[in-house]
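Retro notes - structure team

What went well: the batch runner handled both jobs without manual restarts.
What didn't: labels got mixed up in the shared folder, which is why I'm recording both outputs here explicitly, each with its sequence directly above its tokens.

Job 1
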Amino acid sequence: MHETTRHPPAPRLLDRLRAALQVRHRSPRTQDAYVGWVRRFILFHRKRHPADMGPDEVAAFLSHLAVHDQVSASTQNQALSALLFLYADVLQQPLPPLPGIVHARRPVRVRCAA
């Protein structure tokens, strides 16, 4: 009888993301934030795998955050950083420049008269 060896399943994407962040000594809060953004990105695109998507889908997600969710510029930048890290360091598919992102508005700074 032919015996087959069973290989353990490959680590899931979000587990691979967290492991890559840990290897690079990112804080637990950064790890949680990046995993959260990648999860939201996947859900936004109806559970498509990020390896099957590219710069157009990333730009659509980031623009949605700015227009519909009205996130701050720093929040949108954090989401962008999480996705750039995912593609470059986990999937080994660095993203080219992103087309036409609608950027979140920076807060207006109020200056005091001295």
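Job 2
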Amino acid sequence: MSKLYQGKTALITGASAGIGLEFARQLAAKGCDLVLTARRQDRLQQIAAELTQQFNIKTHVIALDLADPDAPVSLESQLQAQHLQIDILINNAGFGLPGTLVSQPWSAHAASLQVLLVAPTQLCRALIPAMRERGWGRVINVASLAGLVPPSASHTTYGAIKSYLIRFSESLALEEAKSGVAVLALCPGFTYSEFHDANGARSRVQALPKFLWMDAATVVSQALVALEAGKSVYISGRINQFIAGLCKFLPNSIAGWLVNRNAAKFREPNGANDVSNG
């Protein structure tokens, strides 16, 4: 697999921490050049310098906020201006929006939808045609286990958005089946990263059993194997695979009760003014 990515260029959104940063590290180790994007330019430049020095690859930094509706078009324009050919797209940027639908202003919900739903779809539409012309491309849309289990109260749109991303990826994989472009929806569960610090949920989620957690390095390495194996959806880890399977097997009423009972332990029911994105 290492030679497969050598000399390719990957665009990674939300590359400044967590799963996005780990994708950058593992792809760089395989000889892949990188275009890193997130809001924190100084952090991105630091990461780019470290990976360039360690792996002797080319790195490019494009700092922007995908919550801005104009950001995807701006990103595409900057790629074209710098003559950057994207072979691998990792849609990873996240957005933490706790609370209920009515506890957050519409502006926060609109930003969440823009980052998690609109931008990934728009970037796929912008970059896949050139991949098809070259006969080779890879897309990973980072979804979530939340998109495969029954909904819970609070974090109202998150599971729904991730369900969309999973179905979207499945359809896209079917459309591109003969084009040389592989598409994967990655569905991690709880993963050690800065995400829970950013959205203020660390104190709650750290009380969860350790067996529910995975490290970002394992999540990413498994995702890359699943991608090359031709999977369109991959659930990280056996525990998460078991949970998703159990929710399919159980009646909706029971599965929903279990999800809501456990979600209440780590989700902020109100969450006003507690918003983060990456």
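One thing worth noting from job 2: The first strand starts at residue 9 and ends at 13.
We'll revisit the folder naming next retro.
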